[in-house]
Structures are given as C-alpha cells and as structure tokens.
Amino acid sequence: MPRHLSNVPCRMTFSDKISGDTITLFFRMPTPEEQITYDNSLVERKKDKIISRTGEIRQKYGCEILTGIGGGSFTVDGDDGKPVSLSSDPNAPGYRDDWKTLVRTLAPDVISMLSFCVFEQSLVRVDAEETEDPS
Prior knowledge:
Elements: E1 10-15, E2 22-27, H1 32-41, E3 43-46, E4 49-52, H2 54-65, E5 66-69, E6 75-77, E7 83-85, H3 99-106, H4 108-120, H5 128-131
Antiparallel strand pairs: 1-2, 2-5, 3-4, 6-7
Helix pairs in contact: 2-4, 3-4
C-alpha cells in the first residue's frame, strides 16, 4: 500500500512492555522545516565538544506532532481513586485538558519512541534481492 500524502492525522500503535497492552498515538507529519530543525538539533558542537541533545529534542518534537491518544491506551486515577481511561477527545468520557502533559510527564518513553519512529526511522532500506521482479 503506498504512503498517502495528506494532512489527515496519522496513527501508530506500539506494543507496550510496561502494561503488556498496546498504545495508539495520533500525530501529524512534521513539516519540512521541523524535520530539518530536528535533524540539525540532535547534536550541538561547543568548541571541541560534541553534545548529544537527542533526549530533549525527541521530547520537544514528539509533543509538537502528537495530536491524540487512542482510547484505552492510558488510564489515570478517577475521582474515586479507581483507574479510568484517559482520552484526548473532548467528547469522550475520560477527557482531560492536560492529557498531553500527563503523557509527556508520566510516559516520556512513549513520546521518545514516537519521535524516533517519525523523525528518525520512518524508512528502512530494502535489499535489491527483495525488490527484484521474479518474472
């Protein structure tokens, strides 16, 4: 299936080793300017030193492209102290205005993985043998 070029939010589902379940994230594709700035910001040179900024850049840009979370991906304590499903949809039960802050603060690994997959590892090279026409 070809990559569809549009501004419709994208979706990515991860297998979460911490919960043993899946986490679905909705995101927008980065702009060309964001991709360039991301790539150029991963390392910083100060005189003779090269400083990795990978962690902070993944957090920053992952939050910028994150537009929502799938239902059932995360739970938080409800008013009665029991877990309730967190939602990024204002019309759904479990919606909280601070959903993105909660994910960024309490699940930074999820934000990092989103950034890594979208900005750094969206493509994997295919060997020539795998793409040759067998006929």
